[in-house]
Amino acid sequence: MKVSSRLRYLGFGLAAILLSGAAHAQTTPATSGQPLPDPQSRALMQPAKPSPAATATGKVGSTDVTVNYSSPGVKGRKIFGGLETYGKVWRAGANEATTVEFSKDVKVEGKALPAGKYGFFVIPAESGPWTVIFNKVPNQWGAFKYDEKQDALRVMVTPRKSATLTERLVYEIKSPGLVLRWENIELPVAIK
């Protein structure tokens, strides 16, 4: 009888150990005995973002110009007058507001703008020129807290139809300034 009691206790102890191991396995990621990849490798393993971060850099004269933005895709949608409403402030990209940085004082469409980093916004229009805005608050999420009182400069720029569809929003820095391209629109902003 002593032997059967000991076997029973041994059986309960073994069952408890196995069950606690199974419970632990539910909360610990399986690694197959291999170490987890480093953070950079894990980032590469993540699925691509729908609107990946992008940067456009270049020189206009002797001024360094940098545009940081997130690049959404058309994905079969109507963009201007659809996804981006006419007459409404747009962050000129996706996610965080687009920023434009100038290493020196510049003239944008003939108007003075001091060197610095700005939030870049656009108000598309159904016809005629669009409003291009350089806001003193560069780091903001979208245009949700956009405040017109913080505008450093507003200029009017006439868009043009592009020859081909531009699937992903893209900025290009080249003389005489910067160009925003998306869907079937090009918006050239003159900078000196």
How are the SSEs ordered, and which strands pair?
Blueprint: H1 2-27, H2 39-45, E1 53-60, E2 63-70, E3 98-102, E4 106-108, E5 111-113, E6 116-123, E7 130-135, E8 151-157, E9 160-174, E10 177-190
Antiparallel strand pairs: 1-2, 2-3, 3-6, 4-5, 6-7, 7-8, 9-10
Question: Strand order of the main beta sheet, please?
Answer: 1-2-3-6-7-8
Let me know the largest β-sheet. Answer: 6 strands, antiparallel
Q: How big is the Rg?
A: 28 Å
Mean pLDDT: 84
Indicate the low-confidence ranges by residue numbers: 21-32
Q: How much of the sequence is in beta strands? A: 35-45%
- Percent helix: 10-25%
Distance between the termini: 99 Å
Taken from the alpha-carbon principal axes, the silhouette is: globular
Query: What's the total number of strands?
Result: 10
Question: What's the total helix number?
Answer: 2
SSE order: HHEEEEEEEEEE
Determine the structural class based on helices, strands and strand pairing: alpha+beta
Describe this structure in words.
The protein has 192 residues and is of the alpha+beta class. It contains two helices and ten strands. The chain has helices spanning 2-27, 39-45; strands at 53-60, 63-70, 98-102, 106-108, 111-113, 116-123, 130-135, 151-157, 160-174, 177-190. The strands form three sheets. It has a six-stranded antiparallel beta sheet, with no helix packed on it. The longest helix has 26 residues, at 2-27. The radius of gyration is 28 Å and the shape is globular. The protein starts with a helix and ends with a strand.
